[in-house]
Design a protein that fits this description.
mainly beta; Lipocalin; Pericyclase_pydY-like; Lipocalin-like domain-containing protein
Length: 185
Amino acid sequence: MAAPPSQTIDKLGGSWTLNKALSTDFNPLMRLQGLTWLSRKAVNLATITTHITLKPSPSEAASSTRTLILNNSAFNFPGTVEARTLDWEWRDFKDYIWGAFQDRSRIVRKDGLAQEVADGEWVQGLRGEDEWMVESEIRARDGAWSNHTVWGFKSVGAERRLIRHMEARRGEECARAVLVYDFVS
């Protein structure tokens, strides 16, 4: 289902299901991030639902800093919970899927992205509220892999969708994927 106009990066929330038919193959990306063949197979078979909450950060109550909470689940198993404070500061995390990693995230306008990202096909033609996106850099604490992700809204076919552009690196290897989400509620 298309994203309603009320959904913007600044007011992001709700439940979203990964639409694998509209997304590109993200298996190579997961491989570079160290997921085993069996784990990748399970993810490819699962229905992935992401529950998103955007709220003020508890430690920054007097400021405009916000935290994006991503709760991912599949097969009715508990998923991972990612609390991304949108202030572009590195933070340490650990979970049972990705291991120990660091993340930094921010809300940024398309002209504030790194030049190689801002020149990409995906951000061309974005207008109004859709010029804003969430940018995240994630890296394994041991330095084995890194991931650069840009979230935003764009038309796919005739429908406006929430999209994640991801690029993972491990050594000299690089893999890219575009994840497209259906709005559930």
